[in-house]
Amino acid sequence: MRAPCHPLPLPPILVCVAALSPAPAHHPLPAAPPPPPPQILSWVDDDGDAAGQTFCDAGCGVGSLAIPLAARGAVVTASDISPTMAAEAARRAAAALDAPAAARATFRTADLCALDGFYDTVACVDVMIHYPQADVDEMIAALSARAKRRLIVSFAPKTLAYSLFKKVGEFFPGPSKATRAYLHAEADVVAALEAQGWTIRRRGSTASKFYFSNVLEAVREA
Ligand SMILES: C[S@@+](CC[C@H](N)C(=O)[O-])C[C@H]1O[C@@H](n2cnc3c(N)ncnc32)[C@H](O)[C@@H]1O
Asked: How far apart are CA 45 and CA 32, in angstroms?
């Protein structure tokens, strides 16, 4: 089994980037539930075959993907490295889902590099922001070993605008603005996926008031 991956420190950056990248174990719980990742759910809805499929949501946060997947009939195993997040996701699932749907979703505390089991789809949404590319390569290898058909990952793209944000943020150090965030070149993420035998089927993006991320759906070539 692979060693769990751990984030490395990075210079302080602007608070607006901090909104998407708190340190994993101390992730503050959002007051309002975050919206479900629309890009991924629209793919799931377009495919129309979520019911009965197994999903692993690695780094599930408060369950913004896991809960709507279970509501669509999927069997969801969700996990987070933070026990607080895993417990909050379980609490929100119990509150939001009817009994049969709630029974289809399980939540636990785990490092995504130390998961077990096999799933039709493995999703890892907005987790890679916490890790440098070398760890992302390791994470993609670990997640690939768990995914039978499909791997969905999102990452904050290394664009000129984001890179400038980070650069400017380095001039404003301070506890309220300090965090860790890693941007990734899409080519590097795609290369890591292809090295594990995946082919990119769909590309998308998600955007919020604070940030955007790119989403890749990778499948095993027939
Ligand atoms: C920005 S939040 C995204 C949460 C959720 N995927 C979503 O889209 O709403 C990142 C989450 O990744 C979790 N995380 C970070 N490193 C992890 C790891 N190695 N294994 C599992 N979860 C991890 C954090 O605790 C946090 O809940």
From this structure: 24
